[in-house]
Amino acid sequence: MIDDTSRHLFGEDHAIFRAQVRSFLDREAVPHHDRWEREGMVSRAVWQAAGAQGLLCPTVPEAYGGAGADPLFSVVVVEELARAGTSGLGFWVHSEMAVPYLVNFGTEAQKHRWLPGVVSGDTIAAVAMTEPDSGSDLRGMRTRATRQADGGWLLKGQKVFISNGQMADLVIVAAKTEVEGKDRISLFLLDARSEGFRRGRNLDKLGVHAQDTSELFFDDIRLPPDALLGEAGEGFAYLRRGLVRERMIIAASCIAKAERALALTLDHARQRRIFGRMLLDYQNTRFVLADVARDITVGREFVDGFLARWLAGGLDETNAAIAKLWTTEMVGRVADACLQLFGGWGYMTEYPIARLWAEARVERIAGGTSEVMRDLIGRSL
Ligand SMILES: Cc1cc2nc3c(=O)[nH]c(=O)nc-3n(C[C@H](O)[C@H](O)[C@H](O)COP(=O)(O)OP(=O)(O)OC[C@H]3O[C@@H](n4cnc5c(N)ncnc54)[C@H](O)[C@@H]3O)c2cc1C
């Protein structure tokens, strides 16, 4: 199980925070998670409770209501979400995917307007890049924002697969804009109360059922001039920078998910008796779990090393892609091998290992597919 004392990067403050996060999730999320899975989303109350405990956006500077903590506090939150099996809580999408764009590229006025609410959990954030016809190929997006005479923008288009989409109050939307005669991507802050904003279906997924994943529609939304985030036309560069953080967070989360798979399987293998022997007594079981333990140990050292580089500002896009590719493929392998040791019970969704297997599957798709990671790495060689 995750233990900060053997991890050089993490100090006593992280261990204290980890204990707080763990107890919060065990108390406020685990008992409700089955119901949230049936309902297709979590409650607003748990977001606000998490905000009150400092679980949301821990790195937001104090001037805007945050704790100004180092990003390892964010890592602690995602690892604990994975450990608890509370995949429905889209906290990392909010804190690590969406809000950093506002912190890094927002004006003072934009930050003062939005950041206190995202820290408290009163405002839930999402990022909308993907469209029905373009996911990996972001430059192929069709959503367009056209500058108006008053300096504002007219936003038209649609997005799909947007995490937190049903609950979001603030959506960071990527859209094509014309800059000096050329089509370039820009980012916009969309208030979900804007006229012309519509949420489509909460999509029915293979796993992660308690997290809402949605279609979003922008029907000629009039955005004010200050909805533009950063410079017009710089959106693609901002996304590339943001994806480094997103991919390191995914990598850390995948190691914690693999660790949970091992803990669940060990528990089962100690209890299950087959042909008069404990499942764990079979050499096959021990060999499978030995490989799992090897992957987790190697993976944790590897990811912690990259996290240290990231903290020091020296982790580039290629290395973040390597971390995402390796850890997401590893957790897929681990979840599959562990599920096999449960036999038929492993296929029953009432068993956490079945849900973990379905959760692990999306890691090779969302946040950039394995093929896109290989393409990025390959181009750097
Ligand atoms: C549960 C879930 C949550 C998500 N949350 C969000 C979110 O919050 N916000 C958001 O904007 N998006 C989100 N996404 C979208 C996700 O990022 C995309 O699904 C992903 O980037 C792939 O895009 P696509 O689905 O359009 O697949 P496509 O791009 O159509 O890919 C199809 C296939 O082509 C392959 N391919 C693509 N490019 C190459 C290449 N260069 N070489 C070889 N093969 C290639 C892919 O790997 C894949 O196998 C989410 C997706 C899921 C499933």
Helix and strand arrangement:
Blueprint: H1 12-28, H2 33-39, H3 44-52, H4 71-84, H5 91-105, H6 108-120, E1 125-128, E2 144-147, E3 153-163, E4 170-179, E5 182-191, E6 197-202, E7 213-223, E8 228-229, H7 235-271, E9 273-274, E10 277-278, H8 283-311, H9 317-340, H10 352-362, H11 370-380
Parallel strand pairs: 1-4
Antiparallel strand pairs: 2-3, 3-7, 4-5, 5-8, 6-7, 9-10
Helix pairs in contact: 1-4, 4-7, 5-6, 5-7, 7-8, 7-9, 7-10, 8-9, 9-10, 9-11
Bound molecules: flavin-adenine dinucleotide.
Description of the molecule:
With 381 residues, this protein is an alpha+beta fold. It has 3 domains: 4-123, Butyryl-Coa Dehydrogenase, subunit A, domain 1 (Orthogonal Bundle); 126-233, Beta Barrel (Butyryl-CoA Dehydrogenase, subunit A, domain 2); 237-380, Up-down Bundle (Butyryl-CoA Dehydrogenase, subunit A, domain 3). Helices cover 49% and strands 16% of the residues. The protein contains 11 helices and 10 strands. The strands form 3 sheets. Strands 1-4-5-8 form a 4-stranded mixed beta sheet, with helices on one face. A 4-stranded antiparallel beta sheet has the order 2-3-7-6, with no helix packed on it. β4 and β5 (182-191) form a beta hairpin. The protein is globular, with a radius of gyration of 21 Å. The protein starts with 11 loop residues before the first helix and ends with a helix. 46% of the residues are buried. The model has no long low-confidence stretch (mean pLDDT 97). Flavin-adenine dinucleotide binds next to β1, β3 and α11. Pathway: Siderophore biosynthesis; mycobactin biosynthesis. Pfam families: Acyl-CoA_dh_1 (PF00441), Acyl-CoA_dh_M (PF02770), Acyl-CoA_dh_N (PF02771). It comes from Ruixingdingia sedimenti. Its cofactor is FAD. Residues 12-122 form the Acyl-CoA dehydrogenase/oxidase N-terminal domain.
